[in-house]
Amino acid sequence: MSDRLPARLRALATELTTFRERAELTTRAAAKRIGTSITTLNRTENAKRVPTIAEVAGLLATYGVVGSEQKRILTMVDEVHSPGWLERSPRLDPVVKALGDFESEARSIVNFAPSVIPGLLQTHEYARAIMATGYLSESEQQAMAKARMQRQNVLSKLAAPMYTAILDEAALRRAYGGCFVMADQLRWLVDRAKSPNISIRIIPFRHGGYHNPGYYKLLGFAQAPPVVYVEPHETSGFLDHPDDVKLFRDNAEHLLKVSLGSTDSVNLLTRLATDFDRS
To answer: What is the pTM of this model?
Structure first.
């Protein structure tokens, strides 16, 4: 396999494993039902090979996966070799699911956020305020906020990834939800920065301009190539080509150079929280 390991292939492997486990089947039993070897199925579930559409269709039938879920998985197989993986709304659900899986598998995450606090560090109230600016119903907002809070558990689990958040000062000053919500949000960042696996770095206004690549996450893994999660306008997805990954890794190094150190960043967060308290 080349240095590129397609994000779709990795997400597909995780989905097929999850479906098999939900069906309470061992790899031996599943392989026997579709007439393949245990080794072949194991390689499929570990993203070591690209299965055919016929193989995946057989697995989905065995696991009882039908309807829109079946169609979504077969589409992933059909598009597995496409460069990167970007989806436009309303086809974002598979990307969001894959992001959660990648975050849970990652050993390191570098997250640049120029305009909002990253989801992994948001309070529930701040998350709801962000979502209220869109076109979601009240129930959809609640469901998305709940899912976002659950994803944050990845930073507190055993063997949690090393997480570095690089935030523009602008993200700290825009008062989503009002002053009380923002003060609470910033104090939460100060608290999270006490965790040994979490580093928060702020790029202050006084440091002037810099190259802004837009919101992204660079996810590193123990036994797989890194991927980059990006959010262009109305689009979300992954870049997995080594050249793209290098570009964002180099950019992360530049952003860290223009940001405050961890201690100074926490001090700035504390001052801004106090300012919101007084507003």
So the answer is: 0.85
